[in-house]
Amino acid sequence: MLLTIPHVLAPQELAQVRALVLGADWADGRITAGSQSGGVKNNRQLPEELPAAQQARHLVSSALARHPMFVTGALPKSVYPPLFNRYGGSTNAFGNHIDNAVRTHAATARHVRTDISCTLFLSPADSYDGGELVVEDTYGEHAIKLEAGDLVMYSGSSVHRVEPVTRGERLACFFWVESMVRLEVQRRLLYDMDLAITALRQQDMHARQHDYAKTGEAPELVRLTGCYHNLLRMWADV
Ligand code: NI
Question: Which residues make up the environment of ion ligand 1, defined by Cβ < 5 Å?
Answer without folding.
Answer: 99
